[in-house]
Amino acid sequence: MAKAQRDLVFAGYTNYFLWLEQANLGGALRRKAQAGCRVRFLIGDPDSPVTAAREEEEGVPLTLFTRIAVTLAELEKLRNVPGIEGRFESGHVNLSVFHFNDEMIITPILARRVGHDSPMMHLRRCQADGMFDRFAAHVEELWSRGRDIREAEHNAQA
């Protein structure tokens, strides 16, 4: 993440662990965005039936709804920073993709497991249309179908 200058994409269903593991993540993201890096968060829709079903399957005290709420609260602090965006999309409940320029961390979420109990793969872009590009295209498709977090907040308040 520290080396990325063009793209930071966090397409984890909750992304909550980022805020706990990375000291002053909000400040780092703000600096990245101000330097021209595109920062995007694709998170699960807390009101989606997919989220409810996955929450029931996981059966852990720290619910998906709560984990998503952590990310939403942190993104709210960055609301007015140009270049930082967030969208809801429930089509990635079983897959997390974290994209940093030409590197990617992918975690296929296993049945009845939470993310930290699942395997992780580190991909590097070595050729056009390889595995890296296919995962990047998958995330772009999900992003295009997602709805802006700010619009969702506005609609909830209306």
Provide structural commentary.
Helices cover about 40% and strands about 20% of the residues. The termini are far apart. It has a seven-stranded mixed β-sheet with strand order 6-5-4-1-2-3-7, sandwiched between helices. It contains six helices and seven strands; from the N terminus they run E-H-H-E-H-H-E-E-E-E-H-E-H. The mean pLDDT is about 90. Strand 4 and strand 5 form a beta hairpin. The protein is an alpha/beta fold.
Key terms:
158 residues; alpha/beta; 6 helices
Report the span from N to C terminus. 37 Å
Beta-strand percentage?
15-25%
**Major sheet: size, sense and barrel closure?**
7 strands, mixed
According to DSSP, the number of beta strands is 7
Whole-angstrom Rg: 15 Å
Could you give the order of strands across the largest sheet? Answer: 6-5-4-1-2-3-7
Sequence-ordered SSE layout with sheet pairings:
Layout: E1 7-11, H1 16-21, H2 25-34, E2 38-43, H3 49-58, H4 64-76, E3 84-88, E4 95-100, E5 103-108, E6 121-124, H5 131-145, E7 147-148, H6 149-157
Parallel strand pairs: 1-2, 2-3
Antiparallel strand pairs: 1-4, 3-7, 4-5, 5-6
